[in-house]
């Protein structure tokens, strides 16, 4: 993620591309949902032409090929030549992660490959063993590894895991995936902030009153009960995805043009966030969670978290950064709201206290940026209303995060991966409130915005802004220009948006 990245792979540090891709956990969920489609797309789009070796305990090469075909079919991937190339490239090593013989078999299967990329799509508890066996079999020489989140369970285990990995792999060869960093709208936060000079003078404690990152998800934990009950919302998405988003929102401009320049600034933000105290967070659990397969009947794991971060930097001192996320909430949306300070005086003597101006970044499922402000209502009185300038992204050629990230790892580009110090700094933020059964979470009904107690993390009259399910179609839309449209909307008091058809004019 260099300042000049602009979607292209970073070429500032030439490295040797991987000459084989190995994935452990070949019959697992992640391989089915992400790795097969990503590899097939890399074959189609970049001509990836290396052996692809699956390692798993059960099955054989033919069943792995069949699983790859099923995965691609389930994802609507219809490029026949790429499907054939993927299945032709597939190799299979049957065995177990704790058996060094499996790894010797892998080394034989690697043949002439000297720079394999090993993707550890296995539970984090197995990372240590795999790494040790990769070394013992000679498979780690000249190699890189990709490890999935969650990287560790807490600060101590993350530090220990980093130590284990570093005994075998140097940091430049370790690729810690956080797929949020591979998302186009998340990259756009970085781009938008530093490609527009007008933001810098107001992007600080003098003008911003609070920052809010909402990631509600309507789905329950479904078939992931066993995994989720070992994790909870804080480990699952706060420690990684959402703190990464905060780091991009709060960082200083990178100095220099190396990939490290951005990662250095992200680290500094994470390192400056005060470790969370119990009063900074409200945990929740939806009713019915304890009945999910794989979940302990007396589980105290949180499926919801609302929290307030203190970013202790010169720029942000005193500005609360709020995060709210949970399963079984009303909508599935990720949205950032940067609320500005109100004018110092009410010049027009309006009796209704105005909503604050804001910048809203919708990161998913659609991508848009809006600016909420006040404009005068037509008429003689100096009375205004809330309007919103809205720019929607037209879906184009962006690549799904896993395709982009696996492609980057194959080429040795670490820009969009989490660095050791950042991962540990993020664990330091949440470490004190991981709880592990000490405090029962607050119950909430599925389909609501979480437990009512969530308001207690807010300060100074702030409120939660509930993202709307869809960016609404409104009257007053001005002609689209290069993918951007203008519109006026009135923020609803609950924080969603309602059409501007009630008298609000288009903003031009
Ligand atoms: C994953 C979490 O990392 O991110 C899931 O394990 C969560 O619980 C998912 O649903 C959200 O990612 P996305 O890309 O669907 O927004």
Structure, described:
The chain has 508 residues and is an alpha/beta fold. Helices cover 29% and strands 20% of the residues. The protein has helices at 29-46, 61-74, 80-89, 100-110, 127-136, 155-166, 184-195, 225-250, 259-272, 401-410, 420-430; strands at 20-24, 52-56, 90-94, 116-120, 144-147, 174-176, 208-216, 281-286, 304-310, 320-326, 334-340, 358-364, 368-376, 384-392, 442-444, 478-481, 484-486, 489-491, 497-499. Strands 14-13-12-11-7-10-9-8-15 form a 9-stranded mixed beta sheet, covered by helices on one side. Strands 3-2-1-4-5-6 form a 6-stranded parallel beta sheet, with helices on both faces. It has a two-stranded antiparallel sheet with strand order 16-17. A hairpin with a 7-residue loop joins β13 and β14. α6 packs antiparallel against α11 and α9 runs parallel beside α11 (420-430). The model is unreliable at 1-7 and 473-508 (pLDDT under 50). The structure holds 6-O-phosphono-beta-D-glucopyranose. 6-O-phosphono-beta-D-glucopyranose binds next to α8. 6-O-phosphono-beta-D-glucopyranose binds at residues 217, 236-237, 364.
Give the structure's gist in a few sentences.
Helix content is 29%, strand content 20%. The protein is an alpha/beta fold.
């Amino acid at each position: 993620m260099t300042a000049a990245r602009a979607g292209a792979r970073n070429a500032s540090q030439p490295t040797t591309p991987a000459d084989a891709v190995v994935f452990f956990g070949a019959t697992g969920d992640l391989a089915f949902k992400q790795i097969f489609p990503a590899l097939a797309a890399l074959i189609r789009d970049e001509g990836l032409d290396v052996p692809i070796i699956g390692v798993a305990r059960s099955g054989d090469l033919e069943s792995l090929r069949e699983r790859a075909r099923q995965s691609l079919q389930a994802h609507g991937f219809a490029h026949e030549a790429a499907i054939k190339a993927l299945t032709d490239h597939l190799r299979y090593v049957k065995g177990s992660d704790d058996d060094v013989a499996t790894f010797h078999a892998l080394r034989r299967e690697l043949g002439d490959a000297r720079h394999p990329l090993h993707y550890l799509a296995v539970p984090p508890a197995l990372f240590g063993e795999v790494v040790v066996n990769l070394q013992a079999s000679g498979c780690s020489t000249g190699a890189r590894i990709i490890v999935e989140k969650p990287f560790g369970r807490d600060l101590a285990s993350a530090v220990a895991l980093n130590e284990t990995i570093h005994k075998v792999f140097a940091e430049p060869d370790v690729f810690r995936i956080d797929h949020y960093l591979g998302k186009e709208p998340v990259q756009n936060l970085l781009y938008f902030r530093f490609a527009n000079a007008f933001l810098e003078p107001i992007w600080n404690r003098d003008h911003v009153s609070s920052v809010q990152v909402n990631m509600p998800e309507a789905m329950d934990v479904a078939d992931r009960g066993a995994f989720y009950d070992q994790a909870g919302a804080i480990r699952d998405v706060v420690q990684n995805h959402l703190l990464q988003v905060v780091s991009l929102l709060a960082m200083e401009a990178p100095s220099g043009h190396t990939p490290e320049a951005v990662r250095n600034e992200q680290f500094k933000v994470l390192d400056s966030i005060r470790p969370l105290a119990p009063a900074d967070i409200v945990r929740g659990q939806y009713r019915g969670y304890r009945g999910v397969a794989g979940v302990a009947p007396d589980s105290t794991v949180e499926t919801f978290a609302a929290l307030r971060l203190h970013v202790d930097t010169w720029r942000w001192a005193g500005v609360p950064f709020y995060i709210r996320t949970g399963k079984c909430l009303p909508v599935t949306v990720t949205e950032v709201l940067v609320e500005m300070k109100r004018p110092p005086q009410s010049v027009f003597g309006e009796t209704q206290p105005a909503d604050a101006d804001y910048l809203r970044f919708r990161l998913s499922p659609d991508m848009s940026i809006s600016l909420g402000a006040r404009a005068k209502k037509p008429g003689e009185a100096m009375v205004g209303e809330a309007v919103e300038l809205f720019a929607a992204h037209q879906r184009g050629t962006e690549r799904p995060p896993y395709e982009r990230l696996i492609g980057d790892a194959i080429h040795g580009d670490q820009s969009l991966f989490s660095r050791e110090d950042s991962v540990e700094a993020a664990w330091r933020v949440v470490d004190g409130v991981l709880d592990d059964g000490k405090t029962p979470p607050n119950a909430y009904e599925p389909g609501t915005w979480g437990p009512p107690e969530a308001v207690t993390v807010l300060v100074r009259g702030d409120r939660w802004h509930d993202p709307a399910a869809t960016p609404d179609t409104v009257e007053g839309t001005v002609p689209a220009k290069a993918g951007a449209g203008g519109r006026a909307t009135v923020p609803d008091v609950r924080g969603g948006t309602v059409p501007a058809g009630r008298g609000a004019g288009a903003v031009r």
